[in-house]
């Protein structure tokens, strides 16, 4: 993939952009379904970003605590409401983000899903490390 020209400098020379898969069509298809393990701090943010970026995505959030899943759902709904109020999302886009989001306490709910998992910091000493398994 090549960079996208996103700006020009003071001399009117083009400045190459960064590699953003939302600006450039990727070489392989985007996932149709994603499972995110962990609905605490980062899980809802990842879910909202993915649902906003990939129309029609089916997404399941998995956690060991129902309270975390409930808060994650409320947080995603809050992001959608804020996007609508600020004019960042249309009603159609908001409906697309809201549909096909599932929550579960059962790991078997992620069968046949792409997997995105936040690795626990106690194992890696980093809460910025993510693991993605591409099944296709």
Overview of the molecule:
By secondary structure, the protein is an alpha/beta fold. It has two domains: 1-27, no CATH class; 31-133, NAD(P)-binding Rossmann-like Domain (Rossmann fold, 3-Layer(aba) Sandwich), CATH 3.40.50.720. The chain has four helices and seven strands, in the order E-E-E-H-E-H-H-E-E-H-E. The chain has helices spanning 43-53, 66-85, 91-98, 121-124; strands at residues 5-8, 14-16, 33-37, 58-62, 101-104, 114-118, 130-133. The strands form two sheets. It has a five-stranded mixed sheet with strand order 5-4-3-6-7, covered by helices on one side. A two-stranded antiparallel sheet has the order 1-2. Strand 1 (5-8) and strand 2 (14-16) form a beta hairpin. Helix 1 packs across helix 2 (66-85) and helix 2 (66-85) runs antiparallel to helix 3 (91-98). The two termini are 21 Å apart. Residues 1-9 and 121-136 have low confidence and may be disordered.
């Amino acid at each position: 993939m090549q960079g996208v020209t996103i700006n020009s400098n003071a001399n009117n020379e083009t400045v190459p952009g960064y590699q953003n898969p939302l600006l450039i069509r990727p070489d392989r298809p985007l996932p149709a379904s994603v499972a995110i393990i962990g609905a605490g701090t980062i899980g809802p943010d990842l879910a909202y970003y993915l649902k906003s970026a990939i129309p029609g995505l089916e997404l399941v959030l998995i956690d060991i605590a129902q309270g975390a899943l409930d808060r994650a759902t409320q947080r995603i709904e809050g992001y959608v409401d804020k996007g609508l109020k600020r004019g960042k999302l249309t009603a159609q886009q908001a409906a697309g983000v809201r549909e096909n989001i599932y929550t579960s306490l059962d790991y078997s709910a992620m069968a046949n899903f792409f997997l995105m998992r936040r690795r626990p910091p106690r194992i890696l000493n980093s809460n910025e490390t993510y693991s993605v398994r591409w099944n296709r």
